[in-house]
Design a protein that fits this description.
Elements: E1 18-36, E2 42-61, E3 66-73, H1 91-103, E4 108-115, H2 125-140, H3 147-155, H4 161-166, E5 169-173, E6 178-181, E7 188-194, H5 201-214, H6 227-235, H7 238-244, E8 246-247, H8 250-256, H9 260-269, E9 274-277, E10 284-288, H10 291-303, E11 307-313, E12 319-321
Helix pairs in contact: 1-2, 5-8, 6-7
The structure holds 4-diphosphocytidyl-2-C-methyl-D-erythritol 2-phosphate and adenosine-5'-diphosphate.
Residues 28, 31, 40-42, 44, 46, 122-124, 127, 158-160, 175-176, 201-202, 205, 279-280 line the site of 4-diphosphocytidyl-2-C-methyl-D-erythritol 2-phosphate (SUD).
Length: 326
């Protein structure tokens, strides 16, 4: 009897045929943006918060080389998915290809994305799909990369991708990819209000540069997050955070989508402690005092015809989900 057939020999690790991974969307409770850099990016000091609105990526091994993608809309925000690229430009497909290139594993996989985060919404939904695809393919292909190695690949896919892997609350410096976890002892309760159309991230950064040039505003390179923001995130004191949260991209997003000003006013009139544009927008994140206040605001915004959803954060980053029985 050969060693491989011996009853006492350990079975070699078998890759699963299919895995499921969830990864969260994010809001930036503070976003300081520096001047444009020669490479087209901006230095930032971002305080990220992962919130309980999760993308899911189901990865299934295929016999033929290549990455295929399908997308399905799910969840209370009824996210339109028609415009999402399904070819090699899809961020999840790019992530799978990048992992295959890094490890030498054939890129033979089908990725099914269950989309709950608004597309081009300023909540890093595509980044979450990329983070989920990295974790999924690493498990599916048994490639065994560490979280640090996955984070290195993530940074090459987009500024927000490393945060979706990490989750929780974190400060992001550089282009947002140099992460340091932030403490958060008590969850914060938010209501998200989605918009019907998306905003392009580069267009919003460009609009900020134009506004600053017009107003002759010069800003330094951001080097750290505001300590008062970190203290409020740490304590989970929503009133303290409402007083200090801010987003340098907000005026630029409002210049490109002026209707958002009315939505911000509506949320504050209906009981939010404060509202802000999430990242480059157009999703608005309203901060509320507690879970009951969030539920009431969600109901009130829906009654006025908005697509609203109560969420909380921080929540964990990209995670393998248990296999479905059967
Ligand atoms: C604004 C933020 C805030 O977290 O998020 P979103 O609103 O997009 O979710 C991020 O900075 C977006 O990150 P992400 O969407 O991953 O950006 P990338 O794909 O890497 O870059 C897209 C483009 O955005 C601009 N960009 C992005 C990040 C950054 N620090 N400076 C920039 O100027 C550049 O024009 C870049 O070519
Ligand atoms: N898996 C994906 N999900 C969403 N958008 C994607 C995806 N892959 C590529 N994209 C492209 O990236 C753009 C921005 O995506 P998204 O991450 O949703 O927004 P944001 O950068 O505002 O957080 C979309 O307009 C879309 O064309």
């Amino acid at each position: 009897m050969s060693a491989a057939n011996s009853p006492s020999a350990p079975a070699p690790p078998r890759a699963p045929a299919s895995v499921r991974v969830s990864a969260p969307g994010k809001i930036n409770v503070s976003l300081l943006v520096g001047p444009p850099r020669p490479d087209g990016y901006h230095g930032v000091a971002s305080v990220y918060l992962a919130v309980s609105l999760f993308e899911e990526v189901h990865a299934t091994a295929t016999d033929t080389d290549g990455v295929t993608v399908t997308v399905q809309s799910d969840g209370a925000l009824h996210v339109p998915v028609a415009g999402i690229p399904l070819g090699p430009d899809n961020l999840a497909a790019r992530a799978a290809q990048a992992l295959a290139a890094h490890t030498g594993h054939p890129a033979a996989v089908h990725l099914h994305i269950i989309k709950r985060v608004p597309v081009a919404g300023g909540m890093g939904g595509g980044s979450a799909d990329a983070a989920a695809a990295l974790v999924a393919c690493n498990a599916l292909w048994n490639t065994g990369l560490s979280n640090e190695e996955l984070a290195g690949i993530a940074a090459g896919l987009g500024a927000d991708v490393p945060f979706s892997l990490l989750g929780g609350a974190a400060v992001g410096l550089g282009v947002g990819d140099r992460l340091a976890p932030a403490l958060s002892e008590t969850p914060l309760h938010w209501v998200l209000a989605a918009s019907d159309s998306g905003l392009s991230t580069p267009a919003v950064y460009g609009a900020l540069d134009a506004l600053r040039a017009e107003q002759q505003i010069q800003v330094p390179e951001p080097e750290a997050a505001d300590p008062s923001i970190l203290a409020a995130v740490r304590s989970g004191n929503a009133r303290d955070l409402a007083a200090v949260m801010s987003n340098d991209l907000q005026d630029a997003a409002l210049a490109l989508a002026p209707e958002l000003a009315g939505l911000l006013r509506a949320g504050e009139r209906l009981g939010a402690l404060a509202g802000m544009v999430s990242g480059s927008g157009p999703t608005i994140a309203f901060l509320t005092a507690d879970t009951d206040a969030a539920a009431e605001l969600e109901t009130a915004l829906r009654a006025e015809g908005h697509r609203a959803l109560a969420v909380l954060g921080p929540v964990p980053g990209a995670r393998l989900l248990p296999a479905v029985a059967g």
